[in-house]
Amino acid sequence: MPKSKDTDSRKLLRRLKAVMAEEAQGQERLDRIVDLVADSMRTDVCSIYLNRDADTLELCATRGLNADAVHVTRMRLGEGLVGRVARRRVSINTANAPATRGFRYMPETGEEVFSAFLGVPVQRLGERLGVLVVQSREAREYSEDEVYALEVVAMVLAEMTELGAFVGEGEALRPRHAQQVLLRGVTGQEGSAEGVVHLHDPRVVITNPVSDDPEGELVRLREAVDALRLSVDKMLTQASGDREQTEVIEAFRMFAYSRSWLRRMEDDIDAGLTAEAAVEKEQTAARARMRDADPYLRDRLADLDDLSNRLLRMLTGQGRDSVALPDNAVLVARNIGPGELLEYGRKLRGVVLEEGSVGSHAAVVARAWAIPLVLQAEGITTEALSGDPILVDGDQGVVHLRPDDMVTAAFREKLAMQEQAQQRYASIRDTECVTADGHRIEMMMNAGLIADLPSLAGSGAEGVGLFRTELQFLTRNTVPKRGQLVEIYKRVLDAARGLPVTFRTLDIGSDKVLPYMKPTEEPNPALGWRAIRVGLDRPGVMRMQLQALLRAADGRPSRIMFPFIAQMEEFLEARDLLVRQVEREAALGHAVPSDLKIGAMLETPSLAFAPGRFFEAADFISIGGNDLKQFFFAADRENERVRKRYDTLNVSFLSLIAQIVARCEAAGTPVSFCGEDAGRPVEALCFAAMGLRCLSMRPASIGPVKHILLRSNLAEVRDVIEASREAGEQSARPAIMEYLRSR
User: Which pLDDT band holds residue 4 (cuts at 50, 70, 90)?
Assistant: First the structure.
């Protein structure tokens, strides 16, 4: 780094630190900063533009432009040179601003006399905060040293903006992290919760971006980097021996040992930043450089992000362990795996994710715990701080962050009404579910964790209609051993206390990728190599799992179901594999189930039209509603643009359900419906009217569904659906809702 950069930057930052330490209001502090920068860089103009909202910048302070334009001049992202800097998050340095592409004349500022323009983004870890600009009458490009100096000042501005140093008048100077925020996302699990934010990966807050002791900061940085490298080396030695896992850690290690990465951070410290500010400056710069890169480079950016965050936690002592989990915690994260979520336990009131999908296993865990989950709440990890009050409305997919008193009062009224409803449902927990016209409906629950089983008695469920076995595979770094699975499945059966449990064999692929399984790039994973297709093509793991299920039964009745069967031959092949394992277990002298039922999940429309032999061969069939619906309507359930476009009560879909029920009845094969829609009272009522006599859902839904079924006449409901079909209606929902209102 040139010596002039070192000297000029340090001088500027020392003066900036002094200004920041002075007693001043937000506007006054901004005014002093623009004066300081203009004097230090000997420019005619210095201006600070800050975000008014996500799409608009506001001029908040200036030296050299018309003072009356402050808090008046605003521009959209991409508008003018300042807007282009903000949108693209890269600097613009030009000797002739009016002739530069994108220039827009703002008459109220009086900037037409200035030719030279240098604008740098004020950003923090990819979050746009504003733009810092200097301008001169002289037509010249600013030097590399001057650009660097302004970037360093922008870095400090970003940190101080985050800390609320510029709170004051003007929309762009509202208190950071103090305003009420409404975020709209996607419902992952219904329900409502009030609590406080607990950030899964809390952002490191840098309170000391400017240093007076570069030598001491260099020592701190190098010691932290050495510790980081040792931790990465340890990860490599502890790798399971899996070649691909080792390759991933080797790539991670390459970044940790990068000399250029360390040299850039050392240069930033020489310029006057503290060690942690230097780490974050380089992390922000890497994000800007690689934001629009190809997928491979973006994956490498994630590695660099991880390393930078580890380094920041080492330097500051902040991180996941520094904030205790409160009793009323709502977990907020960008994304989270099922293993990490399980580590929190059932103490969480709710979960809000910035990413995630409705089919992810983090969503499965949230459903099993019956806690509200909102997905794809864009910006939540940026807006929220640990300890912020938060209201989660899983029914609407809405999150209220730092709500005002009126919103909180209305939300609490909703919670009180829900509590009254739960008390009503508790009173019918042990009541047999028989409809008003005498039809007996079996109420089963879905599960995937041993911790779910205590809900069996309290929910009024008559058994487990679906036990998802993949969670035990997804939460480990290596394939579980057969003995471990035997113990898990045995505990599940013991906890059920003689009630039936239907185990679904491993359903992986699509959005459920095992950590130790080679990922396969597929254009459409939901229609790709998954579930039974993986099991039949790689039968080793399936054989081991089937053996574990048979041994766990230990002579008791057993129900085993194969997922994602698309044609009869797949079921027959899987059934034969299971029968051979039964014979093997008997030959080894192990107890075999006293009554083994082998079933299939009907999740593809093709299976509804399978030969009659299939329906006769299956001991039972479970309609997998989530997948069946997405394939029936050709609408990806992970895609919000189309997921809600098609109604479950579409008369065509209900006709398909009726057809499946009729084919099962003709073969004498029991059939059930399993999926999210089984737990929605109106949908469940219509399924029962179509002939289904067994529904499997999350435990918390059993009360509401039973409540509506006990009061309903299925023959009347079926008549309403048939009338909608005959009238040429697309959906039976309007007629059904009118019928229920009239009742």
Answer: very low
DSSP E strands in 157-246: the ranges are 181-184, 186-189, 192-199
Range of lowest pLDDT (176-185, 241-250, 280-289, 687-696): 241-250
Q: How far apart are CA 495 and CA 501, in angstroms?
A: 10
| Rounded CA separation 375/359 (Å) | 11
More confident residue, 338 or 654: 654
Residue 109 CB partners (closer than 8 Å, separation 6+): 59, 62, 65, 66, 69, 73
Q: Distance between CA atoms of 396 and 191, rounded to whole angstroms?
A: 9
Q: pLDDT band at 456, cuts 50/70/90? A: confident
Q: Which entry of 361, 400, 686, 707 is annotated as an active-site residue?
A: 361
- 541-563 burial by CB neighbour count: b if 16+ within 10 A, else e? bbbbbbbbbbbbbbebebbbbbb
d(CA 188, CA 333) in angstroms, rounded, equals: 14
664 carries an active-site annotation: no
Tell me the C-alpha to C-alpha distance, in Å, between residue 204 and each of 311, 315, 382.
Answer: 10, 10, 12
Q: What share of the chain is helix, strand, coil (3-state, %, to 5)?
A: 50, 15, 30
Is residue 383 within 8 Å of residue 178, measured between CB atoms?
Answer: no
* pTM score, whole prediction: 0.68
**Beta strands 329-333 and 350-353, pairing class:** parallel
Annotated catalytic, 674? yes
- For the chain, list the domains and their CATH numbers: 3-173 (3.30.450.40), 181-202+322-418 (3.50.30.10), 214-318 (1.10.274.10), 428-742 (3.20.20.60)
Q: Which residues contact 376 (CB under 8 A, 6 or more apart)?
A: 185, 186, 353, 354, 355, 356, 640
| Rounded-to-integer distance, Cα 650 and Cα 653, Å | 5
CA distance 69 to 87: 22
**Where is 673: in which H helix or E strand?**
strand 671-674
Question: What residues form DSSP beta bridges with 132?
Answer: 48, 120
Q: Which pLDDT value is given to residue 160?
A: 79
d(CA 445, CA 464): 5
Rounded CA-CA distance 247/418 in Å is: 51
> Quick one: pLDDT band at residue 630, thresholds 50, 70, 90?
very high
What mean pLDDT, rounded, does the chain reach?
86
- Active-site option among 674, 686, 694, 707: 674
Helix (H, G, I), strand (E, B) or coil at 275: helix
Q: What are phi and psi of 716, to 5 degrees?
A: -65, -40
- What Å distances lie between residue 428 and 139, 315, 519, 681, CA to CA? 82, 57, 47, 15
Determine the Cα–Cα distance for residues 153 and 229; give it in Å rounded to an integer: 30
Choose among 58, 66, 34: nearest CA to 133.
34
